[in-house]
């Protein structure tokens, strides 16, 4: 099974923009292992910088630096049969410093 990584950006007006990426899971890592590894790298248990993680930045409206922020919010990972849109989950976890 592949891994669906879901995340969002919530702007100062509480507008939410969602995205997901599908990673292959060549080593068959369990979901709970992947989830725990990701959570270990999050800012205050929820946030990360999408550009530093190699993910699409979801800012949709004009950025107001007095109100908005650059953090994206981790939502979940789950198994999926959808085809990968990114590389392997192990490479992703290494890239974000989770393993």
Please sum up the structure shown.
With 99 residues, this protein is α+β, with helices and mostly antiparallel strands. Helix content is 16%, strand content 28%.
Task: Explain what this protein looks like in three dimensions.
The structure is a single chain. The protein is an alpha+beta fold and 99 residues long. It has one domain (2-95). It is built from two helices and four strands; from the N terminus they run ββαββα. The chain has a four-stranded antiparallel sheet. Strand 1 and strand 2 form a beta hairpin. The chain is elongated and about 45 Å long.
Largest sheet: 4 strands, antiparallel
**Total tally of structural domains:** 1
What share of the residues does DSSP label as strand, in percent? 25-35%
Mean pLDDT: 93
- First-residue to last-residue Cα separation: 20 Å
Shape type: elongated
**Helical content (DSSP H or I, runs of 4+):** 10-25%
What would you call the structural class?
A: alpha+beta
Order of helices and strands: EEHEEH
Q: Measured on Cα atoms, how large is the radius of gyration?
A: 14 Å
Quick one: how many beta strands? 4
- The number of helical runs is 2
With strands numbered from the N-terminus, the spatial order across the biggest sheet is 2-1-4-3
Regions with little confidence, pLDDT below 50 for 5+ residues: none
